[in-house]
């Protein structure tokens, strides 16, 4: 079992797969209060395996929160910017939870498991924040909010071979499982919820299982994936994969200082919900600003040289004027060039804008402004 979610904040938690990672020789790192695998060997090789075959990830650090009861949907409509009550059973939705000023507390995936049962999945670093906010916002709603982090382990298999790999271990109809949906089933004889969301830009599946079943499932997936070249993957390649796919990371592209409209994700905000929601007025104002003239725009930057733009580096014009800042950057194994996401002034946000560079420790690295994402898989 993973360590208790109410462990003291200075205690590093471990996932149910910690012994497996150490036996595989993983380089471990502290991440959001958890000891997690950074890489097992070459992060580039792990990245390329997900793009061409399949990769296996331990995501058990993510935070699961159950919301149940007759008013569970109404509570989530009030607490989040989306409208989870409109979800059909078995479907999922990407959404966010914001504060009264419209700042993003976290981005989330919400699954509807039954008529009066939802599963909210939060980022590891923000789970306590999300849990506290949901508990505070449930006043007046006939609903319960429960911390389920110790109930679940979460394993993902990602990549073009993932349907074949998982298909060898389950009788679930994976072909009928739509994107952003989940269904109960068995994998290697163990009960799981099989979801199809992903954070890599590839097709793939997430398995929510009992913590005590995690090692069995990991071993079964490893064996089933061997013919296809499946490899275990760590946080390092997960970050380059999501960056190529133009997917935001909380703490980088998303913060309490940004609204969903700043991040180009205004589509997740349902301003027309009849009973309103926390942050609605601030977000309505942010929507108007974004339509008239947004203060900044999230763009992709493709470096023309070899120096890598990193988070926090200034985006500048030819005369050195600062017009933005990098939020995420890394070498792209798929493109063979450094890439970055950055918030920039709208005047420099159009794809193809010339004369933009990133100040990489005093050297201006010329970049091309491009439309996100950098990479799209072939359907």
From TrEMBL:
<dbReference type="InterPro" id="IPR029043">
    <property type="entry name" value="GcvT/YgfZ_C"/>
</dbReference>
<protein>
    <recommendedName>
        <fullName>Aminomethyltransferase</fullName>
        <ecNumber>2.1.2.10</ecNumber>
    </recommendedName>
</protein>
<dbReference type="InterPro" id="IPR028896">
    <property type="entry name" value="GcvT/YgfZ/DmdA"/>
</dbReference>
<dbReference type="GO" id="GO:0019464">
    <property type="term" value="P:glycine decarboxylation via glycine cleavage system"/>
</dbReference>
<dbReference type="GO" id="GO:0004047">
    <property type="term" value="F:aminomethyltransferase activity"/>
</dbReference>
<dbReference type="InterPro" id="IPR013977">
    <property type="entry name" value="GcvT_C"/>
</dbReference>
<dbReference type="GO" id="GO:0008483">
    <property type="term" value="F:transaminase activity"/>
</dbReference>
<dbReference type="InterPro" id="IPR006222">
    <property type="entry name" value="GCVT_N"/>
</dbReference>
<dbReference type="Pfam" id="PF08669">
    <property type="entry name" value="GCV_T_C"/>
</dbReference>
<feature type="binding site">
    <location>
        <position position="206"/>
    </location>
    <ligand>
        <name>substrate</name>
    </ligand>
</feature>
<dbReference type="InterPro" id="IPR027266">
    <property type="entry name" value="TrmE/GcvT-like"/>
</dbReference>
<keyword id="KW-0032">Aminotransferase</keyword>
<dbReference type="Pfam" id="PF01571">
    <property type="entry name" value="GCV_T"/>
</dbReference>
<dbReference type="InterPro" id="IPR022903">
    <property type="entry name" value="GcvT_bac"/>
</dbReference>
<dbReference type="GO" id="GO:0005829">
    <property type="term" value="C:cytosol"/>
</dbReference>
<comment type="function">
    <text>The glycine cleavage system catalyzes the degradation of glycine.</text>
</comment>
<feature type="domain" description="GCVT N-terminal">
    <location>
        <begin position="19"/>
        <end position="273"/>
    </location>
</feature>
<keyword id="KW-0808">Transferase</keyword>
<dbReference type="InterPro" id="IPR006223">
    <property type="entry name" value="GcvT"/>
</dbReference>
<comment type="subunit">
    <text>The glycine cleavage system is composed of four proteins: P, T, L and H.</text>
</comment>
<feature type="domain" description="Aminomethyltransferase C-terminal">
    <location>
        <begin position="296"/>
        <end position="376"/>
    </location>
</feature>
<dbReference type="GO" id="GO:0008168">
    <property type="term" value="F:methyltransferase activity"/>
</dbReference>
<dbReference type="GO" id="GO:0032259">
    <property type="term" value="P:methylation"/>
</dbReference>
<comment type="similarity">
    <text>Belongs to the GcvT family.</text>
</comment>
<dbReference type="GO" id="GO:0005960">
    <property type="term" value="C:glycine cleavage complex"/>
</dbReference>
<keyword id="KW-0489">Methyltransferase</keyword>
